[in-house]
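$ fold --in a.seq
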Amino acid sequence: MILYAILVLATGGERIAELIVSSRNAAWSFARGGVEYGKGHFPPMVALHTGLLLACLAEVWWGGRPFIPWLGWPMLVLVLASQGLRWWCIAALGPRWNTRVIIVRDLPLVTRGPYRWLKHPNYIAVVVEGFALPLVHTAWITAIAFTVLNAVLLLAVRIPCENRALASVEPARA
């Protein structure tokens, strides 16, 4: 359980790093006339992602969830792969990556990195991490709850918001 707690805390540290990068990138975008879309869904998104980390720890510690190697090891691989995909997205978007939806007009859409093949690859990372991180240590209630809440409350709102924001940008490609 200690190693799992370290993994969850490391994931929390990664989230803090994301917020630092995001804050820097938001300043860059706003300095170039960036416009933010969908401000209302950002606080629930932060709450849900924070809740994921806390629920992972709570369910494992208080629920006495065991580590089951045939489930835990593949889920750990998926967690690490999702982090790799997330940081590939961040690198591909450069200063335009953000945890919020901020669009700088007159910049072409990014079509490099994972964006060459997918419109929203970062959300694949979020979905995979959302079920895999809890299942590393069989926190199946957290995995189900996060997956459902993320799909119903966030992705159903966030992806259409991003699509509308991206549609406002010239169709030029980078």
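$ fold --in b.seq
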Amino acid sequence: GAATKGHEEWSKLLAPCEVGLLHGRMSAEEKEEVMKRFRAGKLDALVSTTVIEVGIDVPNATVMFIHDAGRFGLAQLHQLRGRIGRGAHTSYCVLFVDDKDEENRQRLAIMEETSDGFQIAEEDLRRRGPGDVLGHAQSGQAPLLFGELLADTRLVRLARQLAERTLDEDPQLLRPALAVFRDEPVVAEKAQAMMQ
């Protein structure tokens, strides 16, 4: 796949540095072994698919290059760049888009302007619609409902405040009332990532 090809290219470009590979078809054990080596500094760089989007914490990771950044939603890019800059060192996230793709260049400009996950998700929803933001086309759903939600920013901001308070008070979602979210670890991780 693309990640394997990218791994081969970057291994040559960065030689003699050690470059790891992470993708969704690897077993959980294989992924954990790669991340263990990356955390320990045995791997100097990591080529990955968006499997790295959530649940990865490597404080010393300081640079991320995202190829074809125009293919991703703003909220997803925000979550991806949240994997770096977790330590004391200055960090950089570089988004690559085609020079001629002015529309995506303008769309991605908000990533330079803010690190507010809510503001980025709101802009993503405004520009791309609910299906694209959620990661799949949902043309059968009425966009009016999302339009109304977007228009009522007070309601959305209140929901964000309540979510933040819940995560502050119960980060592991251990309260019985939160069991439905606890059973969906990806949802919980994404919620925490959006609050960063």
